[in-house]
Fold:
Amino acid sequence: MIVKDYMTSDVVHVEIPGNRDDVLKILKRTGISGVPVIKNKKIVGIITRKDLLSKPEETQLGLLMTAKPITIEPDMEISEAARILVTKHIRRLPVVENNHLVGLLSVADVIHALAQSKVKEEIKDKYTSKTFALWEETPLPVVGRVMEISGVDAIPILDAENKLQGIISERDLIRSSSIEDSVGVSDFSNGTDDDEWTWESIRDNHTISFGISRVQLPNRPVKLAMVKNVVAVPQNAEVSECALKMRRSRVDQLPVINGDKKLVAMLYDRDLIRAFCNEEPE
Structure:
């Protein structure tokens, strides 16, 4: 299995000069998690959903992107590409030939290859991760902050009876987000209230107004933005079986349930592709 057989050839990208709003529109329209940044026909960076959510006030592509991304060639083995994705903790690899971008290999593309590999190994213990959940009434801004602090890409959502009701992911947060414009004011007064030689009548006041544009999450409960038709798998599910379910459902994660159909863990695509490189989850 080689990269060129599974990579995405028609790569959606943005170019410098450009702005954050263009990236947000692309991510909302396509549902993808990140885009390459091109300058003078060469790749110079990657911008992801996480970048937009963690830097809501930044608009410049050069400050949003991760510069000098790791690139691979189209003839590389999928197993080696999977190893890079796992060890470098990234989700996509630009594919370059003769210094030009010819494709993009994402974790989802590796999942596609894994689904065809007929790996019979069970996911229990080796590939699943401990998880936590949020209440369905949790406001979206809080959900976004929890994701940022915890570093997870998706969180299970429970109702008041502790039953699994849905999954919220970064993709869903981006779809619910909007650009909010406001005006900030900076005070550059020469005097201060602690200065005994400064009187209000003679203080030299200087204020500067400036525009602020930020990615904003609406203050509404997560249940209105989460995915409700959740595809779950048992603890004894096989690796390639789970990869196929991820691909068909177009999800990056699957809740893992026990015999009583209660949530016990999460299976993330980034952990599942370790089956290609025999890497143990951290």
